[in-house]
Amino acid sequence: MMHQDDKSKEMVKRQFAQHADKYVASESHAKGNDLALLVAWLQPHSAWVALDVATGGGHVAKTLAPHVAHVFATDLTPRMLMRAAEHLRPECPNIWYMVADAEALPFLDRTFDAVTCRIAPHHFPRPEEFIREVARVLKPGGRFLLIDNVSPEDKQLGLFINKIEKTRDESHIRCLTIEEWRTLFAAAGLTERRGALRRKTYDFPVWVARMARDTKQIEAVEKLLIEAVDEVKQYFAVKIQNEKVISLQVDEWMVLLEK
Q1: Mean pLDDT for the chain overall
Q2: For residues 155 and 108, what is the distance between their CA atoms, to the nearest angstrom?
Q3: Beta carbons within 8 Å of 155's beta carbon, 6+ residues apart
Q4: How far is CA 238 from CA 15, 161, 172, 211, 216, in A?
Q5: Distance CA 51, CA 47 (A)
Q6: Predicted pLDDT at 1
Q7: What are the domain boundaries of the chain?
Q8: 154 and 229 in contact (C-beta within 8 Å)?
Q9: How far apart are CA 115 and CA 164, in angstroms?
Q10: For 150-188, how does the pLDDT look when each residue is reduced to its tens digit (9 = 90+)?
């Protein structure tokens, strides 16, 4: 009998296999402001070996590649990894691609100088296992840079944004709060060095279509936003014109940690 976590991971693989091309080409993933900050925060060395977990379209791996000796790019979804490799190989010969589960990394202890993971952990069934694995494969003094959407500390706002994400994308598990992440970091022996919380704007039609199966699913997401109470609409800056959602904003956290 398949465990619930295994079912969740199979869902992730199905979803991202179907939409792999969209993620490789995604403007919001390929050109986010956080990519420019990533190198400045990590301050990578040319001799480093880095790991990018759940690489998706490979945008972080591509950003890191010119600054380090090697980047290992892993993803749970073989098709996603193949599309990223096809896209990146001509200009980034020092990236190596491996199918891997973020919660069971196939590497020895103390292998990497740096680990990154961007806009992916909300798909992980057991984020505590992911953080333990990151800490395990990092060298002492190694750096870990995490970027992901986070839930507001307010419980109702947190429930709402996770419901929206789940309605849009069945492979979504949950956006954690910053305090929940900090608890996991402390338990794994990782020390927070720097963090920044920002508001990220989604162009609703583009964002919702990236993972939705059909117009019925898109309409369900839009209905939730339109019918939300004023407090929710204000917090997520939901913009509506002519009874159509134009955009919304979510919280994204970028944090640098050290082992």
Answers
A1: 90
A2: 38
A3: none
A4: 26, 12, 21, 20, 20
A5: 13
A6: 45
A7: 4-153+170-200+251-258
A8: no
A9: 29
A10: 999 999 999 999 999 999 998 899 999 999 999 999 999
Question: For tokens 């910053």, what's the residue?
Answer: 178
CA distance 77 to 101: 9
Q: What are 59's two structure tokens?
A: 């945008």
Q: Using an 8 Å Cβ cutoff, are 59 and 34 in contact? A: no
| Half-sphere CA count of 30, side-chain side, radius 13 A | 11
DSSP for the chain? Answer: ---HHHHHHHHHHHHHHHTHHHHHH-HHHHS-HHHHHHHHHH---TT-EEEEET-TTTHHHHHHGGGSSEEEEEES-HHHHHHHHHHHTTT-TTEEEEE-BTTB--S-TT-EEEEEEES-GGG-S-HHHHHHHHHHHEEEEEEEEEEEEE--SSHHHHHHHHHHHHHH-TT---PPPHHHHHHHHHHTT-EEEEEEEEEEEEEHHHHHHHH-SSHHHHHHHHHHHHTS-HHHHHHTT-EEETTEEEEEEEEEEEEEEE-
**Which single residue is written with the structure tokens 């986010």?**
32
Give dist(CA 167, CA 225) in Å, integer: 11
Written as six digits, the tokens of 169 are: 């994308």
Question: Hey, what are 15's tokens?
Answer: 């979803």
CATH for the 4-153+170-200+251-258 domain, from 2.40.128.600, 3.40.50.150, 3.30.870.10, 3.10.20.30: 3.40.50.150
How high is the pLDDT of residue 3?
A: 55
Give the model confidence (pLDDT) of 22-66 as tens digits: 444 444 444 567 888 999 999 999 999 999 999 999 999 999 999
